Input
Amino acid sequence: MSATYNKPMWSGDIGKWKFPTATGYICPIPSCWRNKIWRFFPISDRHDGIIGLNLIRQYVVAVDYDRREIELFTFGRRPPDGLAVPVTTPYGLIILPCAVNLTGDKEISGQVIMDTGANYYLILFSSFVRKNRLLLSGFQPESQSATVSLGVTTPVYNGRAAELRLGPELYYRDVPITLQASSSGESNRENLPDGSLGVGFFSRYNFTINLLQQRICLRPRSGLEP
Output
């Protein structure tokens, strides 16, 4: 991976990586991949590798899109900075509590994966969509497409939700959303998260991940509306 490493600026910090030419992303790697901190394999023409959850568990990780830097700090060396959202890490993933109000009249609570490698804003998975009858709620799709995973094609409906809440008090209005419909070949996903929050959301912030304190802190980027 093409990256430069700067030595720590003060005692107790690990330092930072800069990515002037390489493009990578933070993506939770299941905990069953024990002792695998870095994982390299062909992802696409635009990515060189994945930084996994086993690394993020060991440090406070600060991601700065504006400076194109990822900094690692030992626990206790990075003060809280920004809007805090509580997280948990079941399934070997970073999970955020959320609530979605599709049409402005009903809030439905769920849990979504933090996935900065996903090229969308927010997607709700088919089991959650079916359980809460979201496609019958008055939601007005703006477009329709499909996803293909393990040979199974699933229709998806793209539009906007009236409101998204993260944690107890962070509200976002008129947000892009994708609803995944059911397909005949899909497996039972009742025990998995309800959706995924992608880079369309996280790229609007510089953020810090602190799994010891079970939270992420979001700082709106300069010139971008949250």
